[in-house]
Amino acid sequence: MILTPCALTIAGTDPSGGAGIQADLKTFQELKSFGMSVITSVVAQNTTGVQSVHHIPLKMIEQQLESVFSDIPVHALKTGMIANVDMMKVIADKITGLNAPYVMDPVMVATSGDPLIAENARYFLRGNLLPLTTLVTPNIPEAEYLTGETIHTIDDMKQAAVQIVDRFNAGAALVKGGHMQGEATDFLYDGSTLHTFSAKRINTKNTHGTGCTYSAAITAYLSQGASLYEAVKSAKYFVTKAIEHSFSLGSGSGPTNHWATRKEGMKNELYHH
Ligand SMILES: Nc1ncnc2c1ncn2[C@@H]1O[C@H](COP(=O)(O)OP(=O)(O)OP(=O)(O)O)[C@@H](O)[C@H]1O
Ligand SMILES: Cc1ncc(COP(=O)(O)O)c(N)n1
Questions:
Q1: N or C: which end of the chain has fewer CB within 10 A?
Q2: Is the predicted ipTM greater than 0.85, yes or no?
């Protein structure tokens, strides 16, 4: 057992609190991991969309990473929005060889439809960051970009998960079904087994930050020593509750509720199998 599990997020910000670094830190805190953050871009955004973006200078991203890595153990890390190739190079260089699970949320476009990373960065991410991952967590459009194939059916989702691991060398792939119809079903391929995680679809427009919250929850559980399967299973439960109790805040797509399980008086414990 790790006494103080330390989880790091490397991502962009959301001043309205629903997505990005803010969602990640709230999730780490809620799941009792010590949360740390390296900011890649300051994003002026809210529930309606992205208003403007300021990229942090490369040197400063590098220094933030050094500040953390030179001083504090990182038991698991995640990346979210990494806006361009130069940032990806700095981050790849710093996390290569780190002995900790790495979860990549391959953030490309916000729920609002606003692009969050440069077009050419998608290819660099696939070729250079994916092979470093323990897990990558694409939604349907992101899985389509990664594989170059369109996804219409459950079988397409499963095939995408397998391809992302077998062809592009991700450690494991979790293809998320938030953008499909019917049950909210995600497929995890770990290189040998395909696992299914399913929950009832909640009828809400408040899904701002669901991807960030889910990948942060997986990272938190991994920082505590959970297996990949246990971490995804527990995180799926956490994100489902966070969507079920999401807020109608703002005039757009409202945020998830990181307090949801506490509200229901549940403990955020790992599922063991
Ligand atoms: N309406 C919903 N009801 C229940 N679960 C949902 C719903 N929408 C998404 N999910 C689940 O939330 C998790 C995040 O999936 P999703 O596909 O929405 O990711 P995403 O698109 O990266 O999120 P984001 O909205 O942050 O971009 C997945 O487990 C997905 O199945
Ligand atoms: C900084 C940042 N990172 C990620 C997302 C994606 O989250 P969503 O698609 O739910 O808006 C976002 N909006 N902002």
A1: N
A2: yes
